[in-house]
Amino acid sequence: MRHGGRWLLLVAWLAALALLGAVAWQRLRVSTDLRSFMPAPATPDQRLLMEQLGEGPGSRLLLLAIAGQPGERLATLSRQLAAALRQDPRYTQVLNGSFDIGALDERLLPYRYLLSPTLDHQRMDAAFLRDELEQRLDDLSSPAATLLKGLLPRDPTLEVLKLAERWSPPKSPETRDGVWFSAQDEALLLVQTRAPGFDPEAQVQAIDGIRQAFDRLPDHGGATLTFSGPGYFSVVANAQTRGQAEWIGRVSTVGFVLLLLLAYRSIGSLLLSALPIASAALAGIVALIVSFPQVHGITLAFGFTLLGVAQEYPIRVLSHRRAGEDAVQSVRDLWPLLLTAIASACIAYLAFYASGVGGLEQLAVFTVTGLLVAGFSTRYLLPRLLPARVHDVAAMPWLLRARRLAEALPRPRWLPPLVALAAAIMLAVAPGPFWQNDLSALTPLPKDLLLRDARLRADLGAPDVRYLLVLQAVDEQGVLALSERLEPSLEALVARHAVDAVELPSRYLPSVAVQQARQRRLPDRATLGQALREAQQGLPFQPGLFAPFADDVEQARQLPALTPARFAASPLGQRLSTMLVSRDGHWLGLGTLSGVHDVAALRALASQSDGMVRLLDLKATAESLVVDYRTRILHALLVATALLVLAIALALRSLRRAWHVLAPMTLATFLVLAVERAAGVEISLFHLVALILAAGLGLHYALFFERDTGDAAEQRRTLHATLVCVASALLVFGMLAWSPIPVLRAIGLTVSLGVAFHFCLSILMAPHARQG
Amino acid sequence: MLSLCANASAPEDTAAARELVASLGRPAPARTAFTEARFMKMLAQPLVVSGELAWLGGDRLERRVDHPSREISTIADGEVTQQREGREARHFSLRRAPQLQLLLDSFVALLGGDAARLEQSFLIRHDARGEDWTLSLTPRDAALARTIGHIDIDGHGREPRCLRMQEADGDLSVDLLGTLAAKMPVAPTREALAALCQDS
Fold first, then answer.
1. Which of A73, A317, A445, B109 is packed most tightly, with the most Cβ within 10 A?
2. Topology at the third CATH level for domain A394-429+654-772
3. A771 touching B, CB under 8 A?
4. Which member of B45, B63, B75 has the closest CB to residue A540?
């Protein structure tokens, strides 16, 4: 190609990349919500989990601790922070122990007689009022007088205080200076976010909002604010994994560049060989944007990992160039084999598309698009740009020696069965469970964070994130009524210490039926007036003092009952609405549990309810989802394997040759699995994805070693290309294998082992070359 | 008369007030009988209770009421606990009852003989009439002074005899202390108590 034409092509290619990049930049919507990567739920519990994962009341709680200053200062900061956050629509509930009379807003104040259980076992008659008024008189002569003075004319029975008590968390921490304190002298707060707990992106914003509010407080210097809770953990785990992956990525990129420079001694070739892989990534992203409304973060992470196969295409081209030969000609010779490799990888990845799982479908679209773009740009674009003068690797003395060594290696016929037997034995005797179903075990949190969480959770009586009590009824009122019926038996369980505390929807709002029953027990104005006069006999209260009280009772008699919808306008109603969800024409109430000690007792309670009450174990349900997920991946793999055998056999037009390619690849894959299992590693989804990548690389090695050109120089070039590929894969994934984060280690270790085994077995199982 | 020369800003008066407060100090626990009359707008007649006040050292105060019904209130660590016979204890934060905080400040400072602490929270006016004296305490915090009013403590020699707390809304409570506690009139009036406190 003419010099000018080459430049034109390069500019056009770069412009196309820039265009794709711009589209990706503008339109890419990355979702971090774990749910969109999960398979479609099959059981009702799984469905509920998917809906509630991160949206249940417990998982949206952030536990806050302020420390590092004298108690009084911390108490002030706690109050100021709570006041600031209560103004912020990102938080549905902010609790810090301070009595919050504003929790029931002014307009709802007359409802107190319908919300408080007082009237259930009490008539509002002269005797009751007399007793209450006498108590108030005692209050007025006590230190509490200044506190209650303002309330008395409107609320002589202190109904507001009874409600405040009912609504404060069932097990509160110690209160000092009017706010919660831990035994470690930290001021404690509970904040419920509107954002779901397992959407790290949304949680980052919620947490930043709290931090900013804290930083804006006057005189907060010296005090430290620490977080805990599921939302915070998802943020920490994400940041930690991302930080490590990026750091390792940078170091290994430098190593990779150095390796290629060493191998090809041409900066131009190096830069150009990056173009196919860059095109692949950008085209893959754009394909995702076109086909899906949102792209999942995990798809991208897995996708970039799997695209590692495509880096081999330009490497093969560079290694196989002959001195004096046009790059286009070299590629033409190589192309049939390269095409086989590309096609088989695409076929394998395409199997993911049939899995029916959103995240995997995205993965298939991304990788198949990427591989095709990388392959075809390597074939049709890259060679036209490569410099004409090259240095032929086949002439390098060390490669000659290496090739002779490889050729001299024995190819024992007993090796494959021996390796297979060893793998089978290792798999059979491997310790521990085979599969790792707990995804969170892959991104573990620092121990001190978990300890702090356990401590704060115990101090605050914050609900358990693992168990949820699910009440089902046809409508909201049915759920509330069910919740009311359940209260006594749950109180009994609390008394038996089966569970520390239970929070049911009816704690915040009684059903309409109960409210109406209470309404009917309220006396009319004349009766109440008479009872008040009688009760006040001989007490020093000024006549007419309780007129505001009489007005409120009269109003309460005529109010329409408070429904969840009407209640939702107030902060407490917001709290309630997170506990009531509608689904498929029926309603669910979510009860949170704190300190579960006896799961069996709770299960027994649920089993006696005719399916109206269920104990949802979020952890077990999540694990069952992972199992489903893996089953689908394994099925997809099975299909992929069958397709692969077919494709390779067709491409090579020989079952015997297909065997030489597929046998080492299969054996090496099982060997990796066996070695990891023997070392006590439990296999997770991430291991599976890494195994697939390694198999893809292994397929290349086997394909190229199997190719018999009868040309010794070409064989040396094949060895060179394979060595560069193996070295670069070991460099990149070997670094990941050292990471302390299990998910990165899982990928790194699996791919590194895989590359090593695939390489060795494809040499040892390849037929001896005919000497040309 | 000496009281004519008394002036809050005069240094010799400040010195005299400090000397007086220092002389009032006694080791914890310090106990004294009290009878309290509360005049409130809400009530047609004042409420009268009697019992014992005790400073337990530090910021801890106990107020035991024996009559008309038994009740014990304790203030400790910024938290007020009220226990009444046959009822569950009630807790609330001192911060929610600023009047009580002032009362605690003045009381602890007096019984501890801690003039510095008293001056930290209050502007002090000192009146002396021979052995009789009155300390007028106005909260330094202007907002607090506006809503809460002020406290007057009357005494004789080394004995505080009366504590009068005037609230901004017009309500008044008068505590007769020590030997004076027994002298509460059957039907107390604001005027009668003021006279009782200031004449010895």
1. A317
2. Multidrug efflux transporter AcrB transmembrane fold (1.20.1640)
3. no
4. B45
**Measuring CA to CA, which residue among A199, A178, A197, A201 is closest to residue A78?**
A178
Question: Within 10 A of B27 (CB to CB), how many other CB atoms are there?
Answer: 10
User: Most B CBs within 10 Å: which of A77, A147, A177, A539, as the mutation test of the B interface?
Assistant: A147
Whether A72 has its CB under 8 Å from any CB of chain B: the answer is: yes
- Reduced to 3 DSSP states, what percent helix, strand and coil does chain A have, rounded to the nearest 5? 65, 10, 25
Query: What's phi and psi for A174, nearest 5 deg?
Result: -65, 140
Residue in chain B closest to A72 (alpha carbons) equals B78
Decide if B127 touches A, using CB distance below 8 A: no
- Specify the DSSP element, H or E, that contains A501: strand A499-503
Contact B78 A178 (CB under 8 A): yes
- From A541, which residue of chain B is nearest by alpha-carbon distance? B43
Q: A475 in helix, strand or coil?
A: coil
What pLDDT, on the 0 to 100 scale, is given for residue A326? 82
Q: How far is A158 from chain B (nearest CA, A)?
A: 13
Position A58 pLDDT exceeds 80: no
Q: What are phi and psi of A734, to 5 degrees?
A: -60, -35
What is chain A's Cα-based Rg? 35
Where do the structural domains in chain A lie, given as residue ranges? 1-31+277-391, 394-429+654-772
Whether the CB of A142 is below 8 Å from some CB of chain B: the reply is: yes
Q: What is the pLDDT of residues A571-583, one digit of tens each?
A: 777 778 878 888 7
Smallest Cβ–Cβ distance between A140 and the set B38, B94, B98 belongs to: B38
SS3 A539: coil
Comparing A213 with A412, the larger pLDDT belongs to A213
Q: What percent of chain A has pLDDT over 90?
A: 31
Output the six-digit token pair for A216.
């804006």
* Segment (H or E) for A567: helix A564-567
Whole-Å CA distances, A324 to A269, A270, A391, A483? 16, 19, 9, 84
Cis omega (within 30 of 0) for bond into B29:
yes
- CATH classification code of B10-198: 2.50.20.10
- The CA-CA-CA angle for residues A578, A580, A586, to 5°, reads 150
Burial status of residue A702 (CB atoms within 10 A of its CB: 0-12, 13-18, 19 or more): buried
B93 to A140: CB separation less than 8 angstroms, yes or no: no
Taking CA–CA distances from B148, the nearest residue in chain A reads: A146
Contact flag B98-A146 (C-beta cutoff 8 Å): yes
Query: Position of tokens 């944007």?
Result: A289
Give the Cα-Cα-Cα angle A283, A289, A293 (nearest 5 degrees): 165
CA A125 to chain centre: 57
Q: What is the pLDDT of residue A52?
A: 64
Provide the residue ranges of all domains of chain B, joining segments of one domain with +: 10-198
Question: Which chain B residues contact residue A546 at CB under 8 A?
Answer: none
Closest chain A residue to B45, measured at CA: A540
Contacts of A75 in chain B (CB under 8 A): 78, 95
Separation CA B133–CA B138 (nearest Å): 16
Residue A286 CB contacts under 8 Å (≥ 6 apart), including other chains:
A20, A23, A24
Q: Model ipTM?
A: 0.86
Judge: A140–B40 Cβ closer than 8 Å, yes or no.
Answer: yes
Chain B residues close to A135, C-beta within 8 Å: 87
Q: Closest Cα partner for A72 from B144, B31, B184, B93?
A: B93
Using CB atoms, pick whichever of A137, A146, A542 lies closest to residue B47: A137
| pLDDT value of position A375 | 94
* Chain B contact set for A71 (CB, 8 A): 78
- Give yes or no for B78 touching A (CB within 8 A): yes
